Amino acid sequence: MLIVSQSGEDEEDAPAWETISAPTTGAVAGEAYGTAAVGECLHWSSPDASDLTKVDCADEHRFEVGAVVDLSSFPGSEFGPEAEYPTEIRFSELRTEICEPAVTRYMGARYDPRGRYSINLINPGQDGWQEGERTIRCGLQHVGVTGAVFPMVGQAGQQDQSVVWDDGFCIGINFEAPTDPVPCEEPHAYEVVGTVDLGEHFGDGYPPVAEQDRFLDDRCRQLAADYLGSPERLTEQRLTAFWDTRSLSSWLAGSRLVNCSIGAQTGAGGGFSAIVGSARGDITIDGQRPSEIALPEPPRVPGAPALIPGN
Fold first, then answer.
1. H runs (alpha helix) in 50-137
2. How far apart are CA 40 and CA 31, in angstroms?
3. What is the pTM for the complete model shown?
């Protein structure tokens, strides 16, 4: 699994990226793991998580502990002193059976099931298990579509959990579907042109999706024009403005932010075309220059398909 983190911006204000490895399961036992309590945050960068440490949740981290579960207290011998180290499948089952309800309780009404945070667990690792450690930590991570783990800052319950990216980010593509951020020079589904706080316009009351669409239709087109330099540039590049909306469950959890983005759809199927290059410069769409492509048709209904799967 790869972690992709924003490492800053270059001279042209384009996002720069670095990738580091991360463990697919668990972390070796150690003092930081063994003493991590509910509400504390953990960080690591090495592939085997041997440098796992507790950090202030206000700092960059990769896991927020939502529950500490001692498996040795379970009835039967499955997790007893002589028990073998569980398989990855079994840990996945424990994540569903134990961690999901436990972390949901930890977050309370602030958990957005469609938001940026996923419920996961870390375990003591095989060495720790053989030494008798049977405690797992359930918690929250920001995991992308591809399984990439993104850094977190701040406690999850105090965040707007909307899945949004900064202006200028390009979101990768796989089989006509969006994935995770990639450099804009690589094939991508769309480019983010702005972020809108729906709460500033609608207040606290939940706006039906149709109302969100009507508002975002104008707002996102304006943000696209500002981002590209002119309203005409969107048509010249053969692109269309897209946006996300918020469900009632997300709204009740406090999620108010949506991205406005620009991309191109592939015919009647509704999938995304592969774009190479930033829309502020020269691009190709499915290998063609914009001048070689017919003008895009307007959306059949106000709004756009959800930009982030699951939101």
1. 88-94, 100-107, 125-130
2. 14
3. 0.80
